[in-house]
């Protein structure tokens, strides 16, 4: 995996952010470039605890924060203990409000995840902040007098997400309508307390980002900045970071390292170079070489393998990534299945056909038919006699062979293979 450093071939970090495609919309570009090329500045990005884990969309922001930190700037990582109680408006319908206890628990989870991607040491070490600390003590009257007076309803209803909801059958509640005010107040608070002059976020949050820049202009008479990253989509127009409708989470318990690796490995040739720019610290020269490899030798999938290795290592560590690679090889007889720990084994085989058998000592024929790899006992016997039956990568040549507990992985699992690539997982219940 490439070291975490910015590419010295660029004149400054702004030029690198532009090349990586991380700037979709921003405040004044010339001012931003000058600001980020100068003395260290404080910036922030917010993450709302609307789930117990961050996902790949959040990873874009975390890596942008890290690139700015590597350029010498100081990050504030905000996990929204108060904004998470409301939730930013979705395009289609009102969010379901979670309990205060749930949100507080999720704040802790997200803070732990954010800490893995930033450095909290040194002169520009990151600081963790929670907006509940300044919103909870504020009364509704103070909120309206000190913050609400700076907002104009006419401007608020023109924000894209609000306008979309106002024109829908669902409408929008006052709570979600007020979200942009809460986020604007966050920027104002961080400006006053830490001298924060830049906020980053997804371009779909642009209305909320500019809520803060406008509030600071009105309340303090100062000019601050915002960067909106593009929403990452696949070349076919589908939403990035979704796998059959399920988000790809940064929590290993919600998306296993094996599933994470496979997600990146399956990136289309048309998307992989853009993904390398956004999600890895590979240099421009390295990425251009991988682009050439993709064009000339696409069957090698060198760019996809690099992407999968780098991002999975970044999220879950090199050790977990090496286990994933070993598991992928072992499934097809190119490694030692017995060396895989149980979580890696079950994650690697999660998408295979699976069946559970009662305690006992099944024969190879029973394993082939129970798993669906053979349609009948006679077909299973034929597979065995032709040398095409394997249990845990060991060829079985006797159709009457019984598979005892000693031959099972972790005392219960049989990876059954017919031929070179047709697999199924059989779990035999312990006696």
From TrEMBL:
GO terms for cellular component: cytosol. The keyword Aminoacyl-tRNA synthetase applies. It comes from Arthrobacter crusticola. It comes from the Bacteria. Keywords: Aminoacyl-tRNA synthetase, ATP-binding, Cytoplasm, Ligase, Nucleotide-binding, Protein biosynthesis, RNA-binding. L-tyrosine binds at residues 44, 179, 183. ATP binds at residue 242. Transmembrane segments: none annotated. It catalyses: tRNA(Tyr) + L-tyrosine + ATP = L-tyrosyl-tRNA(Tyr) + AMP + diphosphate + H(+). A motif ('KMSKS' region) lies at residues 239-243. Pfam families: SYY_C-terminal, tRNA-synt_1b. It is found in: Cytoplasm. Its main location: cytoplasm. Belongs to the class-I aminoacyl-tRNA synthetase family. TyrS type 1 subfamily. GO terms for molecular function: ATP binding; protein homodimerization activity; RNA binding; tyrosine-tRNA ligase activity. This is Tyrosine--tRNA ligase. Catalyzes the attachment of tyrosine to tRNA(Tyr) in a two-step reaction: tyrosine is first activated by ATP to form Tyr-AMP and then transferred to the acceptor end of tRNA(Tyr). A motif ('HIGH' region) lies at residues 49-58. PANTHER family: TYROSINE--TRNA LIGASE, MITOCHONDRIAL, TYROSYL-TRNA SYNTHETASE.
